Amino acid sequence: MALEKLKPLINSIISDQERSVDERLLAVCEVLESHVDYYNWVGFYFKNGDKNELKLGPYVGAPTDHTIIPFGKGICGQVAVSNKNFVVPDVSAQDNYIACSITVKSEIVIPIFVNGKNIGQIDIDSNTIDPFTEKDERFLEFVCARVASIL
Ligand code: SME
Fold first, then answer.
1. What mean pLDDT do residues 64-87 have?
2. How would DSSP label each residue in 71-93?
3. 143 contacts 8 by C-beta, under 8 angstroms
4. Which of 17, 39, 40, 111 is the most exposed place for a label (fewest CB within 10 A)?
């Protein structure tokens, strides 16, 4: 489905105050994973208190052992320190990469900012090689901004 068409769905989930923040984050993961065929694992990581590590939040997809990721490690840990989007067209070409599943071919990680601070990220794995474009980056930046508004 066209990414633009998902924006109203994301907006209605985020503004649903009947649901807890975690329920809304999980619903965002479900919408993304079920409507975009090359989004095969969708989850949130957040800074774990005052530790320099990320902790897994709500996600959809295969369970992962990587519930805690130190800053600097893997694609996610690098985004925690760079504060920049990280698009990986081919994970096999990355040295600093944490494999969660052998089916994963590519990954995109977009940071979430609250009051200018990088407090977490959305992480999406794909079983397709090189599927992400600038449209995914802009769309996921929108998703992260909406998520930030309820954190
Ligand atoms: N591949 C990530 C680890 C998290 S999993 O994709 C769920 C990384 O290299 O940071």
1. 97
2. TTSHHHHHHHHH-S-EEES-GGG
3. no
4. 17
46: left (phi over 0), alpha (psi -120 to 50) or beta: beta
| CATH H-level, domain 3-148: superfamily | GAF domain (3.30.450.40)
> What global pTM score does this model have?
0.96
Angle at CA 40, nearest 5°, toward 31 and 88? 115
Using a 6 Å cutoff on CB, does residue 75 contact ligand 1? yes
The answer to whether 126 and 106 are in contact (CB under 8 A) is yes
For the chain, what are the domain ranges?
3-148
* Dihedral of the alpha carbons of 73, 75, 78, 84, in degrees to the nearest 10: -170
Pocket test for ligand 1, best of 76, 79, 94, 124 (most atoms within 8 A of CB): 76
Task: Report d(CA 46, CA 151) in Å as an integer.
Answer: 11
